Amino acid sequence: NAGVMQNPRHLVRRRGQEARLRCSPMKGHSHVYWYRQLPEEGLKFMVYLQKENIIDESGMPKERFSAEFPKEGPSILRIQQVVRGDSAAYFCASSPQRTNEKLFFGSGTQLSVL
Amino acid sequence: EDQVTQSPEALRLQEGESSSLNCSYTVSGLRGLFWYRQDPGKGPEFLFTLYSAGEEKEKERLKATLTKKESFLHITAPKPEDSATYLCAVQGGGSEKLVFGKGTKLTVNP
């Protein structure tokens, strides 16, 4: 019974490149959330998605960031033209229903921008 | 804007020395207050959800309580394996997102 799977665990990009972070939710979960954790900061909400729909993207920067959760395959968080300030741990969480009584988190992707 | 403040930032205990972690919050229409545990290099692991003032939940050496302004995570006779960062989060009315505090880093020495 695999948990939430995120890959890659570590991603190094140079300024201006694109970063693609993948998240496979737990089996049977159709709700996915992305959070970002900066050093010395708490987890910050970015986006909430259901299959093929973005429900709440109020935490997403207006530019360069996008997310999707297609009918088939993992959820993708895409960061275009990365800058050093994008360096952070990005966590994905899933739940079986809209009411997130209990979120299951992946181990995160550590993005480092050189 | 929903806000969560956790104290202390860090806490060192000797094995068996009981203590409490604090989570103060302001939220518009509390739907739930959550406690998570996070180990280094890992994602948060769910511990408890509390919904209304006066509610308490227990799990092994941990007990979470809730008032209208704050929550406490009581740790009774902690062991070294309880060392972790403990995160508090709230969910406000009309929102699906959790607002997290910065966490309390707990170290339990043998």
- Kindly, what is the distance between the CA atoms of the first and last residues of chain A, rounded to a whole number of angstroms? 36 Å
Low-confidence sequence ranges of chain A:
none
Secondary-structure element pattern of chain A, one letter each: EEEEEEEEEEE
Strand content of chain A: over 45%
Q: Over all CA atoms, what is the radius of gyration of chain A? A: 13 Å
Greatest interface by residues involved: A-B, 26 and 22 residues
Rounded to an integer, what's the Rg of chain B over CA atoms? 13 Å
Mean pLDDT of chain A: 93
What global shape of chain A is seen?
globular
For the record, give the distance between the C-alpha atoms at the N and C termini of chain B, rounded to a whole number: 41 Å
The largest sheet of chain A, given as strand count, sense and whether it forms a barrel, is: 7 strands, mixed
Stretches of chain B where pLDDT is under 50 for at least 5 consecutive residues are: none
Determine the fraction of residues in helical runs of chain A and give it as a percent range: under 10%
Percent of residues in beta strands of chain B: over 45%
Main features:
heterodimer, A: 114 residues, mainly beta, 7-stranded mixed β-sheet, 4-stranded antiparallel β-sheet, B: 110 residues, 6-stranded mixed β-sheet, globular
Question: What is this structure's SSE topology?
Answer:
The complex is a heterodimer of chains A (114) and B (110).
Chain A (H helix, E strand, L loop, with lengths): L4 E3 L2 E4 L5 E6 L6 E7 L5 E8 L2 E4 L8 E4 L6 E5 L8 E8 L8 E2 L3 E5 L1
Chain B lengths: L2 E5 L2 E5 L4 E8 L3 E9 L6 E6 L5 E4 L2 E5 L3 E6 L8 E9 L6 E2 L3 E6 L1
